Predict the 3D structure of the following.
Amino acid sequence: MNISIVTVGKLKEKYLKQGIDEYTKRLSAYAKIELIEVADEKAPEQASEAEQQQIKEKEGERILAKLHPDTYVIALAIQGKMLTSEQLADNLDKLATYGKSKIAFVIGGSLGLSDDVMKRANESLSFSKMTFPHQLMKLVLVEQVYRAFRIMRGEPYHK
């Protein structure tokens, strides 16, 4: 299985990089993983609704340019479906069974994802109703994908 994680913005925090590197290394035993970063737009503190929309659209265009037409896209969004780790594992297993070997998880910038990216997504996933920094979500996502593969293989994992 080929898994891409497409995120907006460059990861700067060393502690997040270390965690992501660790789980990416562990995950590489189960799947080919690619981490793709697209540039974020500078957003003024008091951006108007129209400015926010424009920023999301520009970031969305960059995200869409990284997605192949045959890729199954899962967008991370607060309004997405919440799953347990076991349900995520089951979903990934079903995708693999039905020939969906290219999967991309998409994490938007601080303003979220554009409407065009949400329309392109095959499904949306939420980790919580709370808001998290998008760079922290990248670490949480990589860990959960790793956990999902452990569950699919019947290997032990921390509960």
Q: What stands out?
A: Residues 134-152 form the longest helix (19 residues). Strands lie at 2-8, 32-38, 72-82, 102-107, 123-126.
